[in-house]
Amino acid sequence: MAKPRIATTSLAGCFGCHMSLLDIDDRILQVAELVDFDRSPIVDFKRITARCAIGLIEGGCCNEENVEVLRHFRKNCDVLVSVGDCATMGGIPALRNLVPLEECLREAYLEGPTVHNPERRMPDDKELPLLLDKVYCCHEVVKIDYHLPGCPPSADTIFRALVALLSGKQVDLPYGLIKFD
Amino acid sequence: MANDISFTIDGVEVAAAPGQTIIEAAEAAGIYIPRLCHKPGLEPFGGCRVCTVKSNGRPCSACTQPVAPGMVVENDTEELRALRRDLVELLFVEGNHFCMFCEKSGHCELQALAYRFGIAAPRFDYTWPARQVDMSHPDILVDHNRCILCGRCVRTSRQVDGKNVFQFVGRGHEKRLAVNAEADLGATDAAVTDAAVGACPVGALLKKRIGFATPVGRRPYDERPIGTDIETAAARKE
Amino acid sequence: MAASHPPTVPQICATFGNDPTRLVDIARQVQETYGHVGPASIDAIGRALRIPRVEVESLVTFYSFLSKQPKGRVVIRLCNDIIDRMHGFDQVLAAFTAELGIGVGQTSSDGITLETTACIGLCDQAPAALVNDVPVTELNSDRARQIVRELRKHMDPKQLVTKLGDGNNAHELVRSMVRNNIRRHSDAEGGDNGAEPRIVLSPHAPPEALRKALSISPAEVIRAIKTSRLRGRGGAGFPTGIKWEFTRAAPGARKVVICNADEGEPGTFKDRVLLTERPDRVFAGMTIAGYAIGAHEGILYLRAEYAYLRPFLEMVLQRRRQAGLLGPDLLGKGKHTFDIRIQMGAGAYVCGEETALITSCEGRRGDPKNRPPFPAQRGYLGLPTTVNNVETLCAVTKIMEEGSATFCEHGSKQSSGTKLLSISGDCLRPGVYEVVFGTPLRRVLAMAGAENAAAVQIGGPSGQMVGRDHYDRTICFDDLATGGAMMVFGPQRNLLEVVHAFLDFFADESCGFCTPCRVGTVQLKRLIEKVMAGRGEPADLETMEQIGRTMKTASRCGLGQTAANPVLSTLKNFRPVYMGLVHTDPDGYRRGFDLEGAVRTSETLTGRASIHV
């Protein structure tokens, strides 16, 4: 029987949650025995190649490409998990939600005290995905099945959630594994 | 005063003194009723509504409702747990709460309630309101992003410190904490030694230059849910 | 003639004895004199009253008729309630903004401020506005432009009144264009001309009711009211006699009667009519209540929107004093002393809640109080207090005049007497109707010429929305309980727009004291906007119901406990309206997320289109 597949991605995040995933140490071998990794920064596939049992999402959505990837995950994963505070709440990137986007960009590229930009151009290369008006947490964009909060969630939290999901159980985090920092 | 009033909380018989509120009597009996705006010693407020219980079937705030003989109180029921989760989640989306860099994280009562209730993420819409940070005082900061309008600083300043540094202005969703000066906190008689500074359940009112002093893992709510002290204190007495 | 200087802020404070419990009056007068209560005034008031300045600021920022920012000499407040919206609010507002060249909340260079405001009690002659204290009714865009042009000439709102209303609206101390619109059942085509009960609306000739009350003991007065089974007409329906008995029994020599004339529930205007046409009945009721409970002080809490009635009401009080109906020795019988003062509100719906009303009378922001203690034990300034609605007090006088038995001939066992209804919206004959309790809704709608109604909001936004299958239900405390507002919506109306307007109202009028009301109203409003935009999902309806339940159970006062009713009652009675608008996305995308809208700013800034939209 084919092993269930897992896909992971980091959207508007810092890869800290992926570090935490790697932090499960040798238990990664147990996980690797149970699953195959599909699209993931760990294996560097760009698209999901076959339907996945689990999608792990780090980071929220700060630009249109994040939205596209998140929707791609939603379409191709049975269970989608928001991993970390950026995915569940917006996190540090969402600090910019307290300032209108245009003001943010003006400060960063035109008017900030350290800016040198004689042409006074905003970044507009067509390779750059367009920024969203604010940073959205994942469940504002697609249906999310489980949330693993934390900045990052501990390795134990991630491992416990994976084991539960792979054994067809509900993710039920005990006190001590729900952390917002 | 004699504990001559007898009533029940979730079927458990509790003895209370006349004049006690439900929350006080419960606490003395080792029963934790979740709360935010209540702080022992301060005049009851009844604003956060997290301590909502049912007394003889009618909802009321346990921090303001006096005990009465034979009263039947429901506290830890599915309905009330759901209601409290709602209230905590509403407070999270009302303000801008960034726990990951907040000095109060691990000591914060709002965060601790979310942990105790098993809230992984709020279900409601984030509102990302524009709020101010007042850094004008040399030793104290006010971060309105985190304020939950519980009034603990307002009452502590008045009742304990004998000052009137804080009060609310505006109404409804525009209600916010204000200080007793046209300008900002720096223009008031607030002092870092004021009890009001320590009265904040969240990270809205903080002493400057003191943060992250306790290592992660050793902070009050890292291992033990908020309320555990109340639940175990009575057990130790027995 | 020497130029008269306006009183200074300390002088204004001194007029009120530098008494902090009169802070609402002081702030109102400073606002009136200087166009705002600015930082310097806030400081000066704090010093004079020896209270922290932030307490003054707290109060000023609470009431919508007070402001820290300067306003023009003339303030136009256009009523934005749903009935006004249905009758041309948008066009009138557009005319005002165009003619003034300013937006809402702004002040023109020639000193005219434009604002919108919650219901001003004129739904039966909507659209309406207040120009300073002066009501202007039945507006249209032409009239709006004309008002601005006239104001620019004389800046005197009183001169805007050319055609006077009926009854006392034409009294020289009122001089208002407001009409009473007191309707008779027989106005309806085919309406019965038979027995039409007039209780609270019946003419009142002093001193009959008061003489009868004073001829028996206070306990007997209370017994008569209990026998009449009179229940509070403001909406809650608490038995008046029992309330009085509690207040009488409460320890303390000093007690207070407060008449709640803070008629703020959108769609209600019957108290305005009673205050205009039956003020003696209202004051006699207060006096009788004072005698019954042992109070010597009465306060009429008059909403700021009805300030135009104040000089007239003060005159009626003065006339009663001269006639011995108020003052040190009522009717010269050596039995009781009682007088009444008018406390003006300053624009806050929540002050209609009795404990908030008491807090406001005490000169503070109108936050409701914790209960217990109940007002009957510790109310105004900690004194035993009874708070009764205008209509309730009118019924009291009738009971004194004709006896409890006659009163009980009308209505049912649980609901004796009559109810005044303020009917507005999609009906031919909006106005005030007096109906006996137990009257079927269908009959009421026929009287008002609203047979075609698709939905009726009973009791205002805090009440319930009912549809055609409810029209055989009856107006009474056990069935369709109401404080009196009845808004009629024809089949052409979008009910979700109505719900949205109500939520907008509650979000603005919440005092903000407690979490469920302060945050819940905002969340419900966002959710209804999402559903209206076609971006809702079935789960959103569940979230709305969950938030609504929590608000109902956990809120601290009646405002929050009922603020979710527009959502809860329409989800119950008009669910198909919602179901037609919510969908689940087959791919699990959130329909509430609007990618197109989210990239719009970036598209403008970079000048290129999203490749993903």
3D structure, described in words:
- The complex is a heterotrimer of chains A (181), B (238) and C (613).
- Chain A starts with a strand and ends in a 15-residue tail after the last helix.
- In chain A, 31% of the residues lie in helices and 19% in strands.
- In chain A, the strands form two sheets. Chain A has a five-stranded parallel sheet with strand order 2-1-3-5-7, sandwiched between helices.
- Chain A has a single domain (5-97, 132-166), classed as NADH:ubiquinone oxidoreductase-like, 20kDa subunit (Rossmann fold), CATH 3.40.50.700.
- Chain A has helices spanning 16-22, 27-34, 64-76, 85-89, 101-111, 155-166; strands spanning 5-10, 36-37, 52-58, 61-63, 77-83, 131-136, 146-148.
- Chain A is built from six helices and seven strands.
- Chain A is of the alpha/beta class.
- Chain B is built from seven helices and ten strands.
- Chain B is of the alpha+beta class.
- Chain B has two domains: 5-76, Ubiquitin-like (UB roll) (Roll), CATH 3.10.20; 84-211, Alpha-Beta Plaits.
- Helices cover 25% and strands 16% of the residues of chain B.
- The two termini of chain B are 20 Å apart.
- In chain B, helix 2 packs across helix 3.
- Chain B has helices at 22-28, 78-94, 109-117, 152-159, 195-198, 220-223, 228-237, and strands at residues 5-9, 12-16, 52-55, 58-61, 72-74, 133-134, 140-143, 166-169, 176-179, 205-207.
- Chain C is α/β, with parallel strands linked by helices.
- Chain C folds into five domains: 9-60; 75-162, Glutaredoxin (3-Layer(aba) Sandwich); 208-405, Rossmann fold, CATH 3.40.50; 418-489, Ubiquitin-like (UB roll); 495-579, de novo design (two linked rop proteins) (Up-down Bundle).
- Helices cover 40% and strands 11% of the residues of chain C.
- Chain C has helices at 9-15, 23-34, 39-49, 53-60, 82-86, 89-100, 141-154, 208-214, 218-228, 240-249, 270-277, 279-293, 310-322, 354-361, 390-402, 404-408, 441-448, 495-509, 515-532, 538-554, 558-562, 565-573, 575-579, 595-606; strands at residues 74-79, 112-117, 129-131, 134-136, 256-261, 297-302, 339-344, 385-389, 418-425, 431-436, 455-458, 464-467, 485-489.
- Chain C is globular, with a radius of gyration of 25 Å.
- Chain C starts with 8 loop residues before the first helix and ends in a 7-residue tail after the last helix.
- Chains B and C meet through helix 2 and strand 8 of B and helix 3, helix 4, helix 18, helix 19 and helix 20 of C.
